Amino acid sequence: MKWHRVQAILIRHLYLYQRSIPRLMDIFYWPVMELLLWGFLTRYLEKAGLGGVNIVTILLGALVFWDLLSQGQRAVSIAFLEDVWERNLLNIFVTPLRVSEFLLSTVLLGLIRIVLAGAVISILAYLLYQFNIFTFGFYLVPFVLSILLFGWALGLFTTGIILRFGSSAQVLAFGFIFLIQPFSAVFYPVSALPQSLQYVAYILPSTWVFEGMRRVVATGSLSLPHLGMAFVLNFIYLGLVFWFFYAMFSRVKEKGLLLKLD
Amino acid sequence: MGWINESIVKVKKLVKKFDRTVKVVDNISFEIERGKITGLLGPNGAGKTTTIQMMLDLITPTSGSIKIFGKNVAQNREEVLSRVNFSSPYVNLPYNLKVWENLSTFARLYNVPNPRQKVEELAEFFDIKELLPKITSSLSTGQLTRVNLAKALLNDPELLLLDEPTSSLDPDVADRVRKLLLQIQKDRGVTILYTSHNMAEIEELCTRVIFLNKGKITDDGAPRQLVRKYGRKDLNDVFIAIARGE
Ligand SMILES: Nc1ncnc2c1ncn2[C@@H]1O[C@H](COP(=O)(O)OP(=O)(O)O)[C@@H](O)[C@H]1O
Ligand SMILES: [Mg+2]
What are the TM regions of this chain, as residue ranges (chain A) (predicted)? Predict the structure, then answer.
């Protein structure tokens, strides 16, 4: 692993972001719109006396976490798609750059996007709805980390699919995450799902994060089993996804698709 | 003077099948001498691009071996690729970036010691200095070709693989590019493997050509030699003769 190469790819993306309004909007627009939507809804629920005491914390907290997941995934997929769109992939892999360095740079780009988006929506949530993300205290940190890991795993997975099947599969890059959402118990507990779907829910690390997060809100203490399950599952998924990506990459080299990808 | 004739590339019994049946590259072996410009010729679909991509470890060969600088490419990818470069109009530089941003990105990827100076030096050489602050997508084809070539020289490659670099250029710009390539080869002793469908161009540049047809090497030699051997008036007629199997 050579840092100068990771840095090169990362800086190349930052060049692009610094003057691309659509790309900046991609970071901020959706999270802010969702925040407004859910923020006003929770306001309404509160006023109508429909919600419990913690409804704001739970819904807005879920929203922030969900955005972290989706930003993590999108950042990785989009960073890769940029090179596909610009037919630059071949140029990049004609340099000594390794696949692992390429992936690390997209992950770091994801981290930058998340810090930016996270900061903006946390501040807005506080200003508009007096929602303080630090309600979760330091318990927040391991859960955030866990949700990011899962976001990257999802991002690498969709990237592998696009690599293999071309950018006609790019709808996946944007849509795949919504397949996960209903089963991840984002806005409601797992118990709200039918029994058979609960099994699906429990094999997703995201479920354990969202359940764990609600636990923190309800009890004020950290549930280690939830956190532990989330991390164990994350490492399993990340392992599988890395294996998958390398398998796709070597398949693509065999089929000579690196040049034909578009 | 042994080192002058040193082979920089050794390809042995190289085979590529994309599906199980058709051999797109069919058991070819060749060597390339250091410091020379060698032409890789053949009709469309002959397997030139596939061969070049295998030399760059972008396509995995079905069988056979490729050694560059005496090293197996796939097993020494990082080392070999740091001393090789490639350029072709079918590969783009990111078009949303400014030219200097692109060049400095690749300079970083190659860990060029003094990237700014290197970019400026190459910009001077290829006469693209005034293009550096422009967005890449705003350049003309001729300008892009020169930027691409500048990219391909960032790491001072010992071996340069050029796949139809002049294919989309007007005769004037193509001529300038050829002059630049000859100068690079003379000044820096770069070894160049070159594909083109313009036989006059090949005659001007290459001291040796390898003819590829349907994945097989059908001939190999100095352009003048081949013209004599086939009893034709120029390399263009030789090309047609070989392509039609006459
Ligand atoms: N990725 C691929 N999958 C299947 N067939 C391919 C692929 N790439 C090239 N081919 C086929 O291999 C043959 C050689 O192609 P190519 O190496 O591009 O030839 P050239 O560069 O000499 O024109 C052609 O028949 C082409 O259709
Ligand atoms: Mg070709």
Answer: 27-45, 51-69, 102-127, 133-157, 169-190, 227-249
